[in-house]
Design goal:
Elements (H helix, E strand, L loop, with lengths): L5 H22 L12 H26 L4 H22 L3 H13 L1 H17 L1
Length: 126
């Protein structure tokens, strides 16, 4: 059996984490909501989740790089995914709604600026 390098394991972890955050709902072909349907509360929740996802990534990415093998890497990935789900639940968002807001912000410059400002405010609080 071929041994997986730590760099490869870290890449797999980050890719899998991003797949859950970005690609999974896209595969289900969830259409983004128009900006007019996104309220201030949803945007604030998105900003809080975004900041927490960054913290989760910063915590788990180094652990994934140091994993002793694929099984430990998978366990670390599952822990990170669980934390992500907890943050979403706490903020009242689903994976799909998180990705929808992300997609709208990606295409709408004004909304992106507003969300970036909210993210900055959330980072300042933590």
């Amino acid at each position: 059996m071929k041994r997986v390098s730590l760099k490869t394991l870290a890449t797999i972890f980050v890719s899998a984490f991003l797949m859950v955050v970005v690609a999974k709902p896209l595969v289900a072909q969830v259409a983004p909501k128009p900006q007019s349907e996104l309220d201030e509360k949803q945007l604030r929740s998105f900003a809080r989740v975004y900041v927490q996802v960054e913290k989760i990534r910063q915590e788990y990415e180094p652990r994934a790089k140091e994993a002793s093998g694929p099984e430990e890497g998978k366990q670390i990935q599952q822990e990170a995914q669980s934390k992500f789900q907890q943050v979403l639940t706490k903020e009242g968002l689903s994976e799909e709604s998180y990705v929808q807001i992300f997609e709208v912000a990606r295409t709408d410059q004004d909304l992106r600026k507003k969300i970036l400002q909210m993210i900055g405010e959330e980072k300042a609080k933590s």
